[in-house]
## 1
Amino acid sequence: MFIKVAAMQHIETVEALAREIWTEHYLPIIGREQVDYMLSRFQSAQAIEEQIANGCLYFLIREAEEFIGYISIQPKEQELFLSKIYVRSSRRGKGYGRKAVRFAEELAKEKGLGKIVLTVNKNNILAIKAYEAIGFKKVEALVQDIGKGFVMDDYKMEKKRSEK
Ligand SMILES: CC(C)(COP(=O)(O)OP(=O)(O)OC[C@H]1O[C@@H](n2cnc3c(N)ncnc32)[C@H](O)[C@@H]1OP(=O)(O)O)[C@@H](O)C(=O)NCCC(=O)NCCS
């Protein structure tokens, strides 16, 4: 169900899913210019390849024969950073997000890391509700400059790894 991304074919699948999901979901939140900028800077095939080369892990979420979303994870010294979690709109609300967090928790456990951390746009209300339902709590507000006059205006959220 979670397929580790390494081959270029899968990297291109992530790139295509990112374009579809980010364009649809973020347009009303951050606008076209910032979506296009962030896609080219962070979710082009080349950018994803570089992130993987630098230790970031990407996994496609597969349902039957179809890829329906993806996650990316960065193990840090004290915590596991859940950098991206995106499910296609037609597949939301069916438990994939929760399963993806569970999967991240298993990786955290393997690596001896005690919590999962993520950042989410302050106006991404539905995602914040889903994260809260899964057990994340807001811990701080963060504004990060990402160049070209754009910022990521986020909450940092975290969840202690469950011991199960
Ligand atoms: C956020 C996201 C990854 C969650 O994945 P999902 O597969 O829809 O989540 P799940 O079906 O596993 O739901 C997890 C929990 O959140 C709750 N939830 C999900 N969407 C919700 C919503 N819109 N409002 C309130 N609660 C919600 C569910 O009820 C569930 O809780 P429960 O198990 O106690 O019922 C997904 O909705 C998504 O891709 N959103 C768009 C992209 C995005 O914003 N990604 C996050 C970027 S930081």
Note: The first strand starts at residue 2 and ends at 4.
## 2
Amino acid sequence: MMDTQNRERLLDVRALTVEIDGRNGPAIVVDGIDLHVDKGETLGVVGESGCGKSLTMLSLMRLLPNKIKVAKGTATFAGRDLQTMSNAELRKVRGGDIGFVFQDPMTSLNPVMRVGDQICEPLIYHRRMKKSEARVRAVELLRLVGIPGPEERLQAFPHELSGGMRQRVMIAIGLACNPKLLIADEPTTALDVTIQAQIVDLVKDLRAKLGMSVVWITHDLALIAGLVDRVAVLYAGTVVEDAPVDELYARPSHPYTRGLLSSIPKLSDPPASRLSSIGGTPPEPGRRPKGCPFAPRCPLVEAVCHEKVPRLEPLSGSSNHRAACFVVQRMQEAA
Ligand SMILES: Nc1ncnc2c1ncn2[C@@H]1O[C@H](COP(=O)(O)OP(=O)(O)OP(=O)(O)O)[C@@H](O)[C@H]1O
Ligand SMILES: [Mg+2]
């Protein structure tokens, strides 16, 4: 675990709010998120489908789809404001200092372009490499992400590769320009378990070699336990808990986090209890409850939870473990 003092802040997201223009007016999908990543640090962003993980990251890069926009908040990268910098400046950051691995390699790789050309593109654009230099680097990158026969693979089209290979190509593109920060959005979904583990190990290795920071987005807390330094748990577009990863496992506090952790099956569990999960579904955009967004599903819910929105507050005895829950906060005070 790294020293938490004196670290350089690389990414700093404050009160980020994203809205979708719907038939009944704007609906909030990301509701005042605070996140940060320090130099060399790996942050896991965890939460179930639809909680706003991808939109949060796309908004940082100003890649939000039509009718979805940032309504409030700031995001800075190495001290520079991502929301207000010019398009030209942003293009330099995107794919340069910040590498992206998008959620779905089937749709985000260009199906009619050879893999080699797709890896060379950012090198030619961001690093002003000649085509021949870029190809040498592309071979190096494919080797780095564990693709056998990289020279021949450069000629392949995406459909000629397996799902795991395509995912590795996406990671190679994300890493092409030696980014200071790699944002990987569910880079292993849809892959089988052994390949998922291989890709986690690969990123771990590369992080150590290249000294980059990583944001790893997932719904699978167990997968990233050995990879991340800190975890932010998202629920319905808000951070409900954040903590160093060991602390989160030792002392999960928000009822949602506890639910997520208890739905991770252990081999020692009797078969019937292995897949206990949280009942109910998250609120749809535009139908957020008035108080805590988790209240309708929460086993500990109290009257106040339906009235007010809890703030993310440090837990007693810890400066870097925070939870947004009235019940947890009250129990802490009482203890
Ligand atoms: N293009 C879009 N148009 C309308 N609604 C959208 C669009 N993209 C996302 N949403 C909605 O915004 C919310 C957040 O979506 P987002 O893709 O950020 O979720 P996610 O946490 O990445 O989920 P997943 O784990 O499934 O990838 C969801 O309710 C989703 O339905
Ligand atoms: Mg997503």
Note: The chain has a mean pLDDT of 88.
